[in-house]
């Protein structure tokens, strides 16, 4: 029966879903409002076979459910359309909207200072305060802003409250990095944290589990029953289906927090992330951190390599041409060896490009610098060893895949990054830039060398040149300093 005292009655079905009670015409409006088109859907088999129109409906007309984290957006929908609404209590899960009035800013500030050897910054305290006050939140904070300290504060708070916590990250490297960060903050990670990735035991009695999403998303619901808190780091990197699988199995988990550097260009749609974790809260921005002196100053040198006019039938044809271009690879080698300080060279394809660049740089007679090669086949322990060595070096070179080093590897003593492979991903670009922004005792300035290629044919820009234009838009949006320099490739080029 429809409650006639309000147009829309909202209750909790559980900690994942809200139940909406309303007239049929409002339900249709809700369905249309909370609908988005999946990027790249037209290339998917279901779409091509006409079994799916490429749209996702977040409001399910069959069971009248929608994600709890979208409550704020539902209220905005009601207010915009002059629909009255009310909250209905669920005896077990409570009301849809709850605020912890006992949480104060000063209390959070004092607590964070008491549990950490590092002094928390104002925006970190504000982020943790907002999260604890509302029980669920998607916190947007750029790379090098100190997300791990905020995560640590939330973990410690709930451990003190005897609430078992599941911390989910996208890579094995990040499992180890988070574990080590907690130690660096002054905590006995070994006594409180269990780590799960390939080959590790799943079941444990410790209050905190740090795991990759790949290791747990297929596990039965029974595994998730004991967790009262879930935290997702680098949430934008989770595959949508896997994230939904994890978060819906945590049907009774009240405390939910996601962390991401950006929501633009994510694999998982923003509304899905907000729905599963909570409303988004922007903690700080990169340019603000630079102004405040928390990050290194950044210069971006955009090096546009001028090629003879080329017409490519497909994007893949162009990529094959660029990564196998001898003069281009020699240019990257020479640029790397000319630079002073620890330098990270990022590539996309291991065998076709990464291995070639590594061999050229490592075997060059011009330099006796230490050169490391990192890709998905290098185990987590070896990656961590390379990170530790680099922190002590002043002039090392790391040739690494975007997948392994653009996310989750914290090297403070990194002076230069070279984009050796083209990329249009906003997330990947910003994450990669974050690799060089961390300050160290001997570094106040960092430089990014963004290599692009101009193969313009009959006034038609090539694919990767258009991607470069998109990167320039990002630099403008983020208020980064950049300079564009055109380089004519040498034909002999050694």
Overview of this protein structure:
- There is one protein chain.
- By secondary structure, the protein is α/β, with parallel strands linked by helices.
- The chain is built from 20 helices and 20 strands.
- The protein has helices at residues 24-33, 45-48, 71-80, 105-115, 122-134, 147-160, 172-184, 189-192, 213-216, 221-224, 240-249, 270-277, 286-291, 315-323, 326-338, 350-362, 380-392, 402-405, 426-434, 463-477, and strands spanning 8-12, 17-22, 35-37, 55-57, 65-67, 85-88, 136-140, 165-169, 193-196, 208-212, 229-232, 255-260, 280-282, 297-306, 343-347, 371-374, 397-401, 416-419, 445-454, 481-488.
- The strands form 4 sheets. Strands 9-10-8-11-12-7-13 form a 7-stranded parallel beta sheet, with helices on both faces. The protein has a 7-stranded parallel beta sheet with strand order 16-17-15-18-19-14-20, sandwiched between helices. A 4-stranded mixed beta sheet has the order 5-2-1-6.
- Helix 17 links the parallel strand 16 and strand 17.
- The longest helix is centred in the C-terminal third of the chain and has 15 residues, at 463-477.
Key attributes of the depicted protein:
20 strands; 494 residues; 21% strand; 7-stranded parallel beta sheet; Rossmann fold; Translation Initiation Factor Eif1; globular; 3 domains; single chain; alpha/beta
Global Rg: 24 Å
Q: Identify the strand order in the major beta sheet.
A: 9-10-8-11-12-7-13
Number of folding domains? 3
Report the helical percentage.
25-40%
- Calculate the terminal CA-CA distance, rounded to whole Å: 79 Å
Reading off the top of the CATH hierarchy, the class of the largest domain is best stated as Alpha Beta
Shape: globular
The fold-level CATH name of the largest domain is: Rossmann fold
Number of helices: 20
């Amino acid at each position: 029966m429809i409650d006639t005292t309000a147009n829309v009655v909202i209750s909790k079905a559980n900690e994942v879903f809200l139940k909406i009670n309303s007239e049929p015409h409002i339900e249709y409006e809700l369905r249309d409002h909370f609908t988005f088109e999946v990027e790249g859907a037209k290339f998917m088999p279901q779409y091509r076979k006409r079994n799916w129109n490429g749209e996702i409906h977040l409001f399910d007309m069959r069971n009248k459910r929608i994600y709890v984290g979208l409550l704020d957006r539902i209220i905005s929908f009601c207010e915009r359309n002059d629909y009255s609404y009310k909250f209905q209590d669920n005896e077990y899960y409570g009301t849809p909207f709850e605020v912890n009035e006992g949480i104060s800013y000063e209390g959070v500030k004092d607590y964070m200072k008491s549990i950490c050897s590092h002094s928390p910054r104002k925006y970190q305290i504000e982020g943790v305060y907002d999260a604890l006050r509302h029980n669920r939140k998607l916190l947007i904070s750029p790379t090098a802003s100190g997300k791990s300290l905020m995560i640590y504060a939330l973990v410690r708070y709930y451990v003190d409250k005897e609430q078992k916590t599941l911390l989910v990250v996208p890579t094995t490297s990040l499992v180890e990095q988070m574990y080590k960060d907690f130690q660096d903050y002054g905590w006995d990670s070994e006594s409180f944290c269990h780590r799960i990735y390939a080959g590790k035991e799943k079941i444990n009695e410790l209050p905190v589990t740090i795991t990759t999403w790949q290791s747990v998303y297929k596990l039965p619901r029974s595994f998730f029953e004991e967790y009262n808190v879930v935290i997702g780091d680098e949430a934008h990197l989770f595959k949508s289906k896997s994230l939904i699988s994890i978060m819906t199995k945590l049907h009774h988990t009240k405390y939910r927090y996601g962390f991401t550097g950006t929501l633009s260009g994510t694999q998982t749609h923003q509304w899905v992330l907000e729905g599963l974790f909570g409303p988004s809260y922007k903690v700080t921005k990169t340019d603000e951190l630079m102004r405040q002196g928390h990050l290194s100053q950044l210069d971006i040198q955009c090096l546009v390599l001028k090629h003879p006019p080329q017409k490519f039938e497909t994007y893949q044809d162009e990529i094959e041409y660029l990564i196998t271009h001898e003069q281009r690879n020699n240019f990257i080698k020479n640029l790397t060896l000319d630079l002073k300080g620890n330098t990270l060279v990022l590539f996309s394809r291991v065998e076709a490009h990464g291995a070639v660049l590594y061999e050229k740089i490592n075997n060059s007679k011009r330099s006796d610098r230490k050169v490391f090669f990192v890709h998905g086949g290098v185990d987590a322990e070896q990656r961590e060893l390379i990170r530790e060595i680099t922190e002590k070096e002043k002039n090392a070179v790391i040739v690494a895949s975007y997948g392994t080093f653009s996310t989750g590897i914290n090297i403070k003593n990194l002076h230069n990054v070279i984009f050796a492979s083209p990329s249009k991903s906003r997330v990947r670009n910003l994450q990669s830039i974050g690799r060089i922004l961390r300050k160290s005792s001997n570094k106040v300035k960092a430089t990014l060398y963004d290599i692009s290629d101009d193969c313009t044919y009959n006034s038609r820009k090539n694919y990767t040149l258009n991607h470069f234009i998109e990167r320039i838009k990002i630099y403008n949006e983020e208020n980064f300093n950049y300079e564009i320099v055109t380089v004519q490739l040498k034909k002999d080029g050694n």
